Amino acid sequence: MRGRGVGRAGLVGALIALALPVGAVAQGVARDFDNPGSNDPSQQLDGGTPPVPANPHNYPNVQRDDTPNDPGYDRAEPDDPDGGTSTNLFEERFDLFGFASERTRDEAKYLDPNGDNFGSSQVSGFNAAGGWTRTTGDPEVAVAVLDTGIDWGNSGVRTQVALNRDELPLPQDATGDESAEYDHNGDQAFNVDDYAVDPRVDDSAPTGQDLIRAFSDGHDGLGGPTEDNGYVDDIAGWDFFDDDNDPSDTSSYFAAGGHGTGRMNEAAERGNDGLGELGVCPKCQVMPVRIWDTFVSDQNSFFMGVVYATDNGAEVIAGADGGLYHSAFAEQASQYAYDHGVAQTFSGNDLNTGNHNYPAAYDHAMLIEGVVATPRGSARTFQTPAGRMTPGSGTRSSACCRRCRSSGRWPTRARTSAAPIQPSSAASRRSRCRGRPARPTPARPPAPLRW
Ligand SMILES: [Ca+2]
Ligand SMILES: [Ca+2]
Ligand SMILES: [Ca+2]
Ligand SMILES: [Ca+2]
Fold it and tell me: With a threshold of 0.85, does the pTM exceed it?
Protein backbone atom coordinates (compact mmCIF):
# COMPACT_ATOMS: atom_id res chain seq x y z
CA MET A 1 0.00 0.00 0.00
CA ARG A 2 2.73 2.46 0.89
CA GLY A 3 5.10 3.61 -1.84
CA ARG A 4 8.68 2.59 -1.50
CA GLY A 5 10.45 5.02 -3.78
CA VAL A 6 11.53 7.77 -1.39
CA GLY A 7 13.13 8.22 1.99
CA ARG A 8 16.59 6.94 1.26
CA ALA A 9 18.61 9.59 3.07
CA GLY A 10 19.12 7.46 6.15
CA LEU A 11 20.20 4.52 4.06
CA VAL A 12 22.54 6.65 1.99
CA GLY A 13 24.05 8.06 5.13
CA ALA A 14 24.53 4.59 6.49
CA LEU A 15 26.17 3.37 3.30
CA ILE A 16 28.50 6.36 3.28
CA ALA A 17 29.36 5.57 6.83
CA LEU A 18 29.98 1.93 5.99
CA ALA A 19 32.36 2.95 3.24
CA LEU A 20 34.62 4.70 5.76
CA PRO A 21 37.31 2.80 7.61
CA VAL A 22 36.75 2.32 11.30
CA GLY A 23 37.79 5.39 13.23
CA ALA A 24 37.97 7.59 10.15
CA VAL A 25 35.96 10.72 9.52
CA ALA A 26 35.31 11.96 6.01
CA GLN A 27 36.92 15.33 5.43
CA GLY A 28 34.40 18.12 5.33
CA VAL A 29 31.62 15.98 6.80
CA ALA A 30 30.41 17.10 10.16
CA ARG A 31 30.82 14.32 12.63
CA ASP A 32 27.75 13.75 14.72
CA PHE A 33 25.01 11.24 15.41
CA ASP A 34 24.05 11.09 11.74
CA ASN A 35 27.65 10.93 10.55
CA PRO A 36 29.45 8.92 13.21
CA GLY A 37 33.21 8.90 13.29
CA SER A 38 33.34 5.17 13.87
CA ASN A 39 31.41 2.32 12.33
CA ASP A 40 32.25 -0.12 15.08
CA PRO A 41 28.98 -1.69 16.25
CA SER A 42 30.51 -4.16 18.70
CA GLN A 43 29.39 -4.42 22.29
CA GLN A 44 31.75 -2.13 24.17
CA LEU A 45 31.73 -3.63 27.60
CA ASP A 46 34.31 -1.41 29.23
CA GLY A 47 36.15 0.40 26.49
CA GLY A 48 39.58 -0.29 27.86
CA THR A 49 41.79 1.68 30.16
CA PRO A 50 40.92 5.32 30.65
CA PRO A 51 43.53 7.38 28.78
CA VAL A 52 43.40 10.07 31.41
CA PRO A 53 43.83 8.37 34.77
CA ALA A 54 42.79 11.49 36.58
CA ASN A 55 39.41 11.21 34.90
CA PRO A 56 38.02 7.74 35.52
CA HIS A 57 35.00 8.54 33.37
CA ASN A 58 36.98 9.21 30.22
CA TYR A 59 36.74 5.74 28.76
CA PRO A 60 38.03 5.33 25.19
CA ASN A 61 34.75 3.93 23.97
CA VAL A 62 33.73 4.93 20.46
CA GLN A 63 30.09 4.63 21.43
CA ARG A 64 30.64 7.50 23.82
CA ASP A 65 31.27 9.64 20.74
CA ASP A 66 28.66 11.06 18.40
CA THR A 67 25.78 10.44 20.75
CA PRO A 68 22.35 11.85 19.88
CA ASN A 69 21.53 15.29 21.26
CA ASP A 70 18.18 14.31 22.74
CA PRO A 71 18.45 15.51 26.35
CA GLY A 72 16.70 12.44 27.71
CA TYR A 73 19.28 10.07 26.28
CA ASP A 74 22.17 9.05 28.40
CA ARG A 75 21.75 11.84 30.89
CA ALA A 76 23.39 9.96 33.70
CA GLU A 77 26.69 9.61 31.91
CA PRO A 78 29.05 12.31 33.14
CA ASP A 79 30.84 12.59 29.80
CA ASP A 80 27.69 13.28 27.79
CA PRO A 81 27.92 16.87 26.59
CA ASP A 82 24.17 17.03 26.00
CA GLY A 83 23.16 15.44 29.23
CA GLY A 84 22.17 16.69 32.59
CA THR A 85 22.33 14.69 35.74
CA SER A 86 19.97 11.94 36.62
CA THR A 87 19.06 11.29 40.19
CA ASN A 88 19.09 7.54 40.15
CA LEU A 89 20.06 4.42 38.27
CA PHE A 90 16.70 4.01 36.65
CA GLU A 91 16.86 7.23 34.69
CA GLU A 92 19.76 5.98 32.62
CA ARG A 93 19.06 4.69 29.12
CA PHE A 94 21.23 1.66 29.42
CA ASP A 95 18.53 -0.30 27.65
CA LEU A 96 20.08 1.42 24.61
CA PHE A 97 23.75 1.35 25.57
CA GLY A 98 26.31 -0.98 24.13
CA PHE A 99 28.50 -0.18 27.08
CA ALA A 100 28.33 -0.53 30.81
CA SER A 101 26.42 2.04 32.80
CA GLU A 102 28.55 4.44 34.76
CA ARG A 103 26.53 3.60 37.83
CA THR A 104 27.02 -0.15 37.64
CA ARG A 105 30.36 -0.31 35.84
CA ASP A 106 32.32 -1.01 38.98
CA GLU A 107 29.74 -3.21 40.65
CA ALA A 108 27.90 -5.40 38.16
CA LYS A 109 30.59 -7.73 36.83
CA TYR A 110 30.35 -11.00 34.96
CA LEU A 111 31.17 -13.59 37.59
CA ASP A 112 31.56 -16.83 35.62
CA PRO A 113 35.33 -17.53 35.48
CA ASN A 114 34.78 -19.68 32.40
CA GLY A 115 32.77 -17.07 30.55
CA ASP A 116 34.12 -14.92 27.74
CA ASN A 117 33.29 -11.73 29.59
CA PHE A 118 34.57 -12.72 33.02
CA GLY A 119 35.50 -9.63 34.97
CA SER A 120 33.91 -7.22 32.51
CA SER A 121 31.12 -4.90 33.48
CA GLN A 122 27.65 -6.12 32.68
CA VAL A 123 25.60 -4.43 30.01
CA SER A 124 21.85 -4.40 30.45
CA GLY A 125 19.53 -3.94 27.54
CA PHE A 126 21.12 -4.21 24.15
CA ASN A 127 23.48 -2.47 21.81
CA ALA A 128 21.40 0.19 20.05
CA ALA A 129 24.30 2.60 20.39
CA GLY A 130 26.40 0.23 18.27
CA GLY A 131 23.62 -0.23 15.74
CA TRP A 132 23.37 3.52 15.25
CA THR A 133 26.92 3.54 13.89
CA ARG A 134 25.47 1.63 10.90
CA THR A 135 22.01 3.14 10.52
CA THR A 136 19.51 5.22 12.41
CA GLY A 137 16.62 3.91 10.34
CA ASP A 138 14.58 4.73 7.27
CA PRO A 139 11.20 6.50 7.22
CA GLU A 140 9.96 3.95 4.70
CA VAL A 141 10.28 1.21 7.33
CA ALA A 142 7.15 1.07 9.47
CA VAL A 143 6.87 -0.65 12.84
CA ALA A 144 3.24 -1.55 13.50
CA VAL A 145 2.59 -1.12 17.22
CA LEU A 146 -0.40 -3.25 18.21
CA ASP A 147 -1.54 -1.90 21.53
CA THR A 148 -3.95 0.55 23.14
CA GLY A 149 -3.60 3.08 20.32
CA ILE A 150 -1.87 6.44 20.17
CA ASP A 151 -1.90 9.75 22.00
CA TRP A 152 -1.90 12.03 18.98
CA GLY A 153 -0.55 14.87 21.09
CA ASN A 154 2.67 13.04 21.93
CA SER A 155 5.38 15.20 20.43
CA GLY A 156 7.93 12.40 20.19
CA VAL A 157 5.95 10.41 17.62
CA ARG A 158 3.90 13.14 15.90
CA THR A 159 6.10 13.12 12.81
CA GLN A 160 6.80 9.40 12.99
CA VAL A 161 3.35 8.11 12.11
CA ALA A 162 3.20 6.21 8.81
CA LEU A 163 0.63 7.70 6.43
CA ASN A 164 -1.39 5.89 3.80
CA ARG A 165 -0.88 7.43 0.38
CA ASP A 166 -3.89 5.51 -0.94
CA GLU A 167 -6.19 7.56 1.31
CA LEU A 168 -4.45 10.93 1.09
CA PRO A 169 -4.35 13.52 -1.69
CA LEU A 170 -1.05 15.14 -2.57
CA PRO A 171 -0.20 18.00 -0.20
CA GLN A 172 -0.88 21.57 -1.21
CA ASP A 173 1.17 24.70 -0.62
CA ALA A 174 -0.27 27.74 1.17
CA THR A 175 -1.89 29.00 -2.03
CA GLY A 176 -3.65 25.71 -2.67
CA ASP A 177 -1.35 24.53 -5.44
CA GLU A 178 -0.82 20.81 -5.38
CA SER A 179 2.63 19.40 -4.76
CA ALA A 180 4.17 17.14 -7.39
CA GLU A 181 5.03 14.54 -4.77
CA TYR A 182 4.03 13.47 -1.29
CA ASP A 183 7.33 14.61 0.23
CA HIS A 184 6.27 18.23 -0.17
CA ASN A 185 8.91 19.72 2.14
CA GLY A 186 11.73 17.67 0.63
CA ASP A 187 13.06 16.19 3.85
CA GLN A 188 13.16 12.66 2.38
CA ALA A 189 10.24 11.49 4.52
CA PHE A 190 6.50 11.47 3.92
CA ASN A 191 4.83 12.52 7.13
CA VAL A 192 2.37 14.95 8.67
CA ASP A 193 4.67 17.93 8.20
CA ASP A 194 4.22 17.66 4.44
CA TYR A 195 0.71 19.03 5.12
CA ALA A 196 1.93 21.80 7.47
CA VAL A 197 0.92 24.65 5.14
CA ASP A 198 -1.92 22.83 3.40
CA PRO A 199 -4.99 25.12 3.62
CA ARG A 200 -7.24 22.06 4.07
CA VAL A 201 -5.51 21.20 7.36
CA ASP A 202 -6.21 23.45 10.31
CA ASP A 203 -2.91 23.14 12.12
CA SER A 204 0.64 24.15 11.26
CA ALA A 205 1.97 21.20 13.25
CA PRO A 206 -0.60 18.61 12.23
CA THR A 207 -1.04 15.21 13.80
CA GLY A 208 -2.25 12.06 12.15
CA GLN A 209 -5.64 12.76 13.66
CA ASP A 210 -5.72 16.18 11.99
CA LEU A 211 -5.23 14.45 8.65
CA ILE A 212 -7.92 11.89 9.47
CA ARG A 213 -10.35 14.72 10.15
CA ALA A 214 -9.34 16.71 7.10
CA PHE A 215 -9.28 13.95 4.50
CA SER A 216 -11.72 11.22 5.54
CA ASP A 217 -14.26 11.08 2.73
CA GLY A 218 -16.21 7.92 3.47
CA HIS A 219 -14.62 6.06 0.58
CA ASP A 220 -12.18 3.19 0.77
CA GLY A 221 -9.41 4.96 -1.08
CA LEU A 222 -9.64 8.32 -2.80
CA GLY A 223 -13.14 7.87 -4.15
CA GLY A 224 -12.51 5.92 -7.33
CA PRO A 225 -14.80 3.17 -8.59
CA THR A 226 -12.80 0.37 -6.96
CA GLU A 227 -12.25 -0.29 -3.31
CA ASP A 228 -8.79 -0.09 -1.85
CA ASN A 229 -8.00 -2.42 1.03
CA GLY A 230 -11.36 -2.86 2.76
CA TYR A 231 -10.66 -0.23 5.42
CA VAL A 232 -12.43 3.07 4.83
CA ASP A 233 -10.17 6.10 5.33
CA ASP A 234 -7.38 4.25 7.10
CA ILE A 235 -5.19 7.31 6.80
CA ALA A 236 -3.00 6.68 9.85
CA GLY A 237 -3.54 3.18 11.16
CA TRP A 238 -6.73 1.47 12.31
CA ASP A 239 -8.74 0.83 15.46
CA PHE A 240 -9.80 -2.82 15.69
CA PHE A 241 -11.40 -2.37 19.10
CA ASP A 242 -13.95 0.21 17.96
CA ASP A 243 -13.63 -0.73 14.27
CA ASP A 244 -12.99 2.75 12.98
CA ASN A 245 -10.19 4.75 11.40
CA ASP A 246 -9.02 6.67 14.47
CA PRO A 247 -6.72 4.59 16.66
CA SER A 248 -6.74 7.13 19.49
CA ASP A 249 -5.88 5.72 22.87
CA THR A 250 -9.15 6.02 24.82
CA SER A 251 -8.41 3.21 27.21
CA SER A 252 -10.86 2.93 30.07
CA TYR A 253 -8.47 0.85 32.15
CA PHE A 254 -6.57 3.14 34.50
CA ALA A 255 -3.19 1.47 34.05
CA ALA A 256 -3.37 1.05 30.29
CA GLY A 257 -3.77 4.61 29.06
CA GLY A 258 -0.68 5.66 27.16
CA HIS A 259 0.71 2.15 26.98
CA GLY A 260 0.65 2.03 23.20
CA THR A 261 2.18 5.49 22.86
CA GLY A 262 4.98 4.55 25.21
CA ARG A 263 5.79 1.58 23.03
CA MET A 264 5.84 3.86 19.97
CA ASN A 265 8.22 6.23 21.76
CA GLU A 266 10.53 3.35 22.48
CA ALA A 267 10.32 2.06 18.93
CA ALA A 268 10.74 5.20 16.85
CA GLU A 269 10.64 8.45 18.77
CA ARG A 270 12.23 11.14 16.64
CA GLY A 271 15.94 11.29 17.41
CA ASN A 272 18.79 13.78 17.40
CA ASP A 273 16.32 16.65 17.34
CA GLY A 274 17.37 18.21 20.62
CA LEU A 275 14.05 17.27 22.20
CA GLY A 276 12.93 14.59 24.61
CA GLU A 277 14.35 11.18 23.97
CA LEU A 278 14.69 8.90 20.99
CA GLY A 279 13.51 5.50 19.91
CA VAL A 280 15.65 2.54 19.04
CA CYS A 281 15.03 3.19 15.34
CA PRO A 282 14.71 6.98 15.42
CA LYS A 283 14.17 7.49 11.69
CA CYS A 284 11.67 4.69 11.22
CA GLN A 285 7.92 5.23 11.38
CA VAL A 286 5.15 3.69 13.43
CA MET A 287 1.78 2.36 12.32
CA PRO A 288 -0.67 2.76 15.21
CA VAL A 289 -3.02 -0.21 15.44
CA ARG A 290 -5.42 -0.20 18.38
CA ILE A 291 -6.32 -3.77 19.17
CA TRP A 292 -8.06 -3.56 22.56
CA ASP A 293 -8.95 -1.37 25.51
CA THR A 294 -5.85 -2.55 27.32
CA PHE A 295 -2.77 -4.66 26.70
CA VAL A 296 -4.46 -7.86 27.82
CA SER A 297 -6.42 -8.44 24.68
CA ASP A 298 -8.69 -10.63 22.65
CA GLN A 299 -6.28 -12.49 20.44
CA ASN A 300 -8.53 -12.60 17.40
CA SER A 301 -8.68 -8.82 17.51
CA PHE A 302 -4.93 -8.65 17.99
CA PHE A 303 -4.28 -10.86 15.00
CA MET A 304 -6.71 -8.99 12.80
CA GLY A 305 -4.23 -6.22 13.45
CA VAL A 306 -1.37 -8.52 12.48
CA VAL A 307 -3.03 -9.30 9.14
CA TYR A 308 -3.76 -5.60 8.55
CA ALA A 309 -0.17 -4.61 9.34
CA THR A 310 1.16 -7.36 7.08
CA ASP A 311 -1.05 -6.39 4.16
CA ASN A 312 -0.48 -2.66 4.52
CA GLY A 313 3.24 -2.15 4.49
CA ALA A 314 4.56 -2.79 8.00
CA GLU A 315 7.86 -4.61 8.06
CA VAL A 316 7.95 -5.17 11.80
CA ILE A 317 5.10 -5.87 14.22
CA ALA A 318 5.52 -5.03 17.88
CA GLY A 319 3.16 -6.38 20.51
CA ALA A 320 3.67 -5.79 24.23
CA ASP A 321 0.54 -7.77 24.82
CA GLY A 322 -0.80 -10.72 26.72
CA GLY A 323 -3.60 -12.76 25.20
CA LEU A 324 -6.63 -14.07 27.03
CA TYR A 325 -6.48 -17.25 24.94
CA HIS A 326 -5.17 -18.34 21.59
CA SER A 327 -7.02 -19.49 18.53
CA ALA A 328 -6.52 -21.25 15.23
CA PHE A 329 -7.02 -17.95 13.43
CA ALA A 330 -4.43 -16.20 15.57
CA GLU A 331 -1.84 -18.87 14.91
CA GLN A 332 -2.57 -18.84 11.18
CA ALA A 333 -2.27 -15.07 11.11
CA SER A 334 1.12 -15.27 12.76
CA GLN A 335 2.12 -17.77 10.08
CA TYR A 336 0.72 -15.41 7.43
CA ALA A 337 2.91 -12.54 8.65
CA TYR A 338 5.93 -14.81 8.74
CA ASP A 339 5.29 -16.06 5.22
CA HIS A 340 5.21 -12.47 4.04
CA GLY A 341 8.54 -11.64 5.64
CA VAL A 342 7.20 -9.50 8.48
CA ALA A 343 9.13 -9.72 11.73
CA GLN A 344 6.99 -10.33 14.82
CA THR A 345 8.34 -9.34 18.21
CA PHE A 346 6.18 -9.97 21.25
CA SER A 347 6.68 -9.65 24.96
CA GLY A 348 6.95 -12.74 27.05
CA ASN A 349 5.73 -12.94 30.57
CA ASP A 350 7.99 -11.96 33.40
CA LEU A 351 5.46 -13.08 35.95
CA ASN A 352 7.39 -16.06 37.27
CA THR A 353 4.52 -18.29 36.29
CA GLY A 354 4.36 -21.39 34.13
CA ASN A 355 1.66 -20.33 31.70
CA HIS A 356 2.28 -19.81 28.01
CA ASN A 357 1.91 -16.17 27.11
CA TYR A 358 0.35 -15.53 23.74
CA PRO A 359 1.16 -14.22 21.23
CA ALA A 360 4.78 -14.64 22.29
CA ALA A 361 4.45 -18.42 22.42
CA TYR A 362 3.90 -18.81 18.67
CA ASP A 363 6.67 -20.36 16.59
CA HIS A 364 7.60 -17.25 14.62
CA ALA A 365 7.63 -14.72 17.43
CA MET A 366 10.81 -13.13 18.67
CA LEU A 367 10.30 -13.46 22.41
CA ILE A 368 11.34 -10.45 24.46
CA GLU A 369 11.94 -10.46 28.19
CA GLY A 370 13.09 -7.73 30.53
CA VAL A 371 16.73 -7.55 31.53
CA VAL A 372 18.62 -6.06 34.42
CA ALA A 373 22.20 -5.89 35.57
CA THR A 374 22.84 -7.85 38.73
CA PRO A 375 25.41 -6.03 40.81
CA ARG A 376 25.68 -8.83 43.30
CA GLY A 377 27.15 -7.80 46.58
CA SER A 378 26.65 -4.12 46.01
CA ALA A 379 25.85 -2.19 49.11
CA ARG A 380 24.51 0.71 47.13
CA THR A 381 20.83 1.41 47.04
CA PHE A 382 18.78 3.49 44.68
CA GLN A 383 15.62 5.43 45.03
CA THR A 384 12.80 3.81 43.06
CA PRO A 385 9.07 4.37 42.75
CA ALA A 386 8.62 1.55 45.20
CA GLY A 387 11.10 2.96 47.68
CA ARG A 388 14.78 2.27 48.16
CA MET A 389 16.08 -0.77 46.39
CA THR A 390 19.39 -2.59 46.43
CA PRO A 391 20.46 -3.56 42.92
CA GLY A 392 20.03 -7.25 42.31
CA SER A 393 17.33 -7.55 44.91
CA GLY A 394 14.59 -7.81 42.36
CA THR A 395 13.90 -9.01 38.86
CA ARG A 396 12.50 -5.82 37.45
CA SER A 397 13.34 -4.70 33.98
CA SER A 398 15.91 -1.98 33.78
CA ALA A 399 14.84 -1.43 30.20
CA CYS A 400 11.65 0.24 31.23
CA CYS A 401 12.13 1.49 34.72
CA ARG A 402 12.61 5.04 33.56
CA ARG A 403 9.17 5.13 32.00
CA CYS A 404 7.64 3.18 34.84
CA ARG A 405 9.01 5.73 37.19
CA SER A 406 7.67 8.65 35.28
CA SER A 407 4.25 7.07 35.02
CA GLY A 408 4.13 5.62 38.49
CA ARG A 409 2.94 2.35 37.01
CA TRP A 410 5.91 0.23 37.58
CA PRO A 411 4.59 -3.29 37.99
CA THR A 412 2.50 -3.39 34.85
CA ARG A 413 4.90 -1.68 32.49
CA ALA A 414 7.90 -3.51 33.77
CA ARG A 415 6.28 -6.66 32.53
CA THR A 416 5.13 -5.52 29.15
CA SER A 417 7.19 -2.70 27.81
CA ALA A 418 10.32 -4.54 26.74
CA ALA A 419 8.73 -5.74 23.53
CA PRO A 420 9.07 -2.66 21.30
CA ILE A 421 12.78 -2.48 21.83
CA GLN A 422 13.81 -5.56 19.93
CA PRO A 423 11.30 -4.98 17.11
CA SER A 424 12.89 -1.63 16.61
CA SER A 425 16.21 -3.33 16.39
CA ALA A 426 14.64 -5.47 13.69
CA ALA A 427 13.45 -2.28 12.01
CA SER A 428 16.99 -0.94 12.06
CA ARG A 429 18.16 -4.08 10.33
CA ARG A 430 15.37 -3.69 7.79
CA SER A 431 16.49 -0.13 7.25
CA ARG A 432 20.01 -1.26 6.48
CA CYS A 433 18.70 -3.82 4.01
CA ARG A 434 16.57 -1.41 2.01
CA GLY A 435 17.71 -1.14 -1.57
CA ARG A 436 19.41 -4.51 -1.47
CA PRO A 437 18.11 -7.50 -3.45
CA ALA A 438 15.03 -9.05 -1.94
CA ARG A 439 15.57 -12.06 0.21
CA PRO A 440 14.73 -15.45 -1.36
CA THR A 441 11.07 -16.33 -1.51
CA PRO A 442 10.13 -18.70 1.30
CA ALA A 443 10.23 -22.32 0.20
CA ARG A 444 6.61 -22.70 1.28
CA PRO A 445 4.07 -20.43 -0.42
CA PRO A 446 1.98 -18.27 1.88
CA ALA A 447 -0.95 -20.23 3.23
CA PRO A 448 -4.42 -18.82 2.58
CA LEU A 449 -6.10 -17.40 5.63
CA ARG A 450 -9.33 -18.97 6.81
CA TRP A 451 -11.50 -16.53 8.69
CA1 LIG B 1 8.54 15.35 3.92
CA1 LIG C 1 -8.49 2.08 2.82
CA1 LIG D 1 -10.95 7.67 1.63
CA1 LIG E 1 13.91 13.36 20.36
Answer: no
